[in-house]
Design brief:
about 375 residues; alpha+beta; Thermophilic metalloprotease-like; eight-stranded antiparallel beta sheet; five-stranded parallel beta sheet; 20 strands; about 25% strand; globular
């Protein structure tokens, strides 16, 4: 028997997120996803008159592929994947994970081949700027454990979060977008954190369910050389299958001058990937009322209500600050009371305190008004 929530999620992805139209082609790429969800998506694509392209991948197989691949193998796979992506008007990436550290033992030089010949050309250079796309996770037992919830409770949380009223959220985001567009100076204060930077003249983008599911952030980027101070992230973060905690970054004129964590050596190796990895490409404010605590999954954690994320690496074309990098690492600071609290200031005006917006025009984004 099919869970009716699968159809509701498919409706969100096709009707709201990708806005698929008759005659358009959509590339559906799945990773460790139940067949029933893939079938439901394909059925929905046909209902609107679209053309589905489907690729079903598995994390354990990908790990084995990465482990022993040479340049020729990765280049060939990348060329085939790019040819498929070029056929698509829209893209859905639906990613399950039975083991979030599946690729943790893949040698860094092998992951570099993947990024250079597969991920970069297919996703960074083509899919992101040239298609309508949405990416999302799938609820697994592993994710339930990460969230420290029962499987049933986590599934309820997942579907409530992923199928919420994103049109209502979108309207509530408009005042925040408007304020950020006229803001110059930003200050973030929290335990171990005092950070200042400018967002003057950088575009501001609402994320309201069209690119990520779950969604719920408004993002821009700092002026590249304007970042000064210290930022101590208070959530764990995952990169290339490795878990990092207690990440602390010290900035001067935009550049990360000092970086420490539970694994300082690995952290700095990532930040030395290229010149742009030590500069920041994104500043975002999380507002999803259903996401209240981290679970070591970026798509959820960066949407936490009362959070910000400040991202070393590549800036998005929608909000460019001139920084380019192979790295884009969303790391999260939560400012709700149970996580130490904190303040967010725009041009020396208090905007949010302890995770709650204090300006009248922004109160529609507080959790009680979005649920």
């Amino acid at each position: 028997m099919y869970d009716p929530r699968l159809k509701k999620l498919a409706d969100v992805l096709i009707d709201h997120s990708t806005k698929l139209k008759k005659g358009e082609t959509i590339y559906i790429e799945t990773f460790d996803i139940p067949v029933e969800m893939v079938e439901t998506l394909v059925r929905k694509v046909y209902e609107v008159g679209g053309r589905p392209l489907v690729s079903q991948k598995y994390a354990k197989v990908l790990r084995r592929l990465y482990m022993d691949a040479d340049e020729g193998t990765m280049r060939t796979i990348g060329e085939l994947e790019l040819a498929t992506m070029k056929k698509a008007d829209a893209y859905i990436g639906l990613r399950g994970s039975h083991n979030i550290t599946e690729t943790s033992d893949v040698p860094p030089e092998k992951m570099e081949l993947y990024k250079k010949y597969w991920w970069g050309p297919v996703h960074i250079e083509w899919r992101v700027p040239r298609t309508r796309w949405v990416v999302l996770r799938w609820p697994t037992s592993s994710m339930s454990q990460q969230a420290q919830m029962s499987t049933e409770a986590f599934e309820d949380f997942y579907f409530n979060t992923c199928t919420m009223d994103y049109s209502k959220m979108s309207k509530a985001m408009d005042p925040l977008k408007a304020i950020m567009e006229r803001t110059d100076k930003v200050r973030i204060v929290a335990p171990g954190t005092d950070l200042r930077f400018s967002i003057k003249d950088i575009p501001v983008v609402k994320c309201d369910g069209e690119l990520n599911i779950p969604d719920g952030e408004v993002f821009t980027a700092p002026v590249k050389d304007s970042v000064n101070g210290t930022l101590a992230y208070n959530t764990q973060t995952l990169y290339d299958g490795k878990v990092f905690s207690s990440v602390k970054l010290e900035f001067k004129d935009g550049k990360i001058m000092k970086a420490t964590a539970n694994n300082t050596e690995s952290l700095n190796k990532i930040l030395d990937t290229d010149e742009g990895a030590r500069y920041v490409g994104e500043f975002a404010i999380g507002v999803n009322p259903f996401v209240t605590k981290p679970m070591l999954d970026t798509l959820f954690d960066e949407k936490i209500s009362g959070s910000i994320h400040f991202t070393p690496g590549n800036s998005y074309d929608e909000a460019p600050n001139g920084n380019r990098s192979k790295v884009h690492w969303d790391m999260v600071l939560i400012q709700t009371p149970e996580w130490g609290g904190g303040e967010l200031y725009f041009d020396d005006v208090l905007i949010r305190k302890d995770g709650i917006f204090v300006l009248d025009e922004l109160k529609g984004l507080n959790p009680d008004n979005l649920m």
